[in-house]
Write a structure and sequence with these properties.
By secondary structure, the protein is α/β, with parallel strands linked by helices. Helices cover about 30% and strands about 25% of the residues. The radius of gyration is 23 Å and the shape is globular.
Length: about 450
């Protein structure tokens, strides 16, 4: 309650500081305080409006979408989104700038020089992100078009290890073309002697990783055709115990949301995602009922929180989760979804990169309990995840290996197939989440 009061005061003080130019529709009113957590939606809306005034229209849309996800009945937020979208379209019309090209790998060691991974390796892994308001039309590496551009503009290809030049070209949908050219140099021999190309380098103290978790479990369903799930909360508590005792999660960095409604879940998730830093890692676990809906040609998955009655309003969709995660600075986010039809929560197919880069590059991944089938009331998925995490003796356990470990057991015991995919339109750089065992 104190936190909500503080947030509301911050909003009112910030609004007042803008004097007569303030957008008065942002003022907190009783009508949007039916639940205390709507205050947080107002804060997000204010951040969107502030970015809109500053000309940061894409960031403004990001905050408006988050606010609308928490407060879907708002009449004001859609108006602001439409207004901001018009400004974005105006900027696109006038845009004559080339796409922004960000090279992720290989390592840049000078303004025009990159360092190869290994001496004599047949391939050099190239990855990066290209962004443009008008949208990216194509990306070309050393004369060859990149076959697939992932959401958020992420791309990855292998080029011959003998290449001495790296030429990256990208065009937006208005025909503007940008080019980056680098010389490729071989790494010092000492680097090759100390790091094997097929090994993951130990995560050093310089990385300073911090681990957080949001554990969501819904058990006491009443009405709406949803049966109670008596084991979900105890399973979530078992997961917390393993994360703390074996993988060094600080219990103060674990938030437990048991038998909460839509507003409480989304406002808490959004607040935590906003607070994370670039070396933070986050596990989001959901145990409860799930469903899906076809929207045109698109399949949308939903978590069912408590007191949910309208699938388009107070169910938690994969789209809403994407919007909440967008813009988070966290290095790695892993979602564990233990619900019926959980495969519908997925985004694009998983991206894999050479193992030595996997922790260094950002990731957004979802490991789900099943495909497009119902899953049993007693969770085989969480039982197998807990068993794998408890029995693991490796210092570094990538989620792709966790997936391989549980796959056979889940399929044999429940006749459903767990899935591992990337999700979201922002933050995927080809990395993956690692569980790091305590010393």
């Amino acid at each position: 309650m104190k936190k909500s009061l503080l947030i509301s005061l911050l909003i009112l003080v910030s609004i007042a500081s803008f004097g007569q130019e303030t957008d008065t529709s942002l003022v907190v009113t009783k009508s949007n305080l039916k639940f205390g957590d709507y205050i947080y939606a107002n804060l997000l809306e204010f951040k969107g409006w502030h970015n809109e005034r500053a000309g940061n229209y894409e960031k403004a849309m990001e905050y408006y979408k988050k606010a609308l996800a928490i407060h879907p009945n708002s009449d004001d937020i859609p108006f602001k989104m439409a207004r901001t979208q018009k400004k974005i379209q105006h900027d696109i019309t006038l845009d004559k700038s080339s796409p922004e090209i960000q090279l992720l790998t290989p390592k840049i060691i000078g303004s025009l020089t990159v360092e190869a991974d290994d001496i004599g390796h047949p391939h050099l892994f190239i990855s990066g992100i290209v962004k443009d308001l008008a949208g990216v039309e194509w990306i070309n590496i050393n004369g060859t078009n990149v076959p697939e551009i992932k959401p958020g503009g992420y791309f990855s290809v292998n080029i011959p290890g003998t290449a001495s030049k790296l030429i990256i070209q990208a065009a937006d949908k208005k025909g503007n073309i940008g080019t980056h050219t680098y010389d490729i140099v071989q790494p010092p021999k000492t680097t090759i002697d100390n790091i094997a190309s097929d090994k993951i380098p130990l995560i050093t103290i310089d990385d300073n990783p911090a681990f957080h978790a949001i554990l969501i479990a819904c058990s006491d369903y009443k009405g709406g055709g949803w049966n109670p799930l008596p084991t979900t909360i105890s399973e979530a508590k078992q997961l917390k115990s393993v994360l703390v005792k074996k993988y060094g999660f600080d219990s103060t960095n674990i938030v437990e949301l048991y038998n909460k409604d839509y507003i409480k879940i989304l406002s808490t998730m959004s607040s935590i995602l906003e607070s994370l830093n670039e070396n933070d890692n986050l596990v989001i676990y959901f145990a409860g009922h799930g469903t899906y809906k076809n929207k045109g040609t698109e399949l949308v998955g939903y978590w069912v929180p408590l007191k949910a009655t309208n699938i388009d309003v107070d169910y938690i969709s994969s789209k809403k989760l994407d919007e909440l995660v967008a813009g988070s600075k966290a290095k790695h986010i892993l979602m564990l979804s233990d619900a019926c039809y959980s495969a519908a929560m997925r985004g694009s197919e998983e991206v894999r990169t050479p193992s030595k880069w996997e922790y260094k590059l950002r990731s957004r991944q979802v490991l789900t309990s099943g495909g497009m089938e119902k899953v049993p009331g007693e969770s085989v998925f969480v039982k197998m995840v807990l068993e794998a995490l408890q029995k693991n003796e490796d210092t570094l356990l990538p989620v792709s290996e966790l997936y391989s470990i549980i796959y056979g057991g889940v399929k044999k015991q429940s006749n459903t197939e767990p899935k591992l995919n990337d999700f979201g339109k922002d933050g995927n750089e080809g990395g993956q989440f690692y569980f790091i065992k305590k010393n």
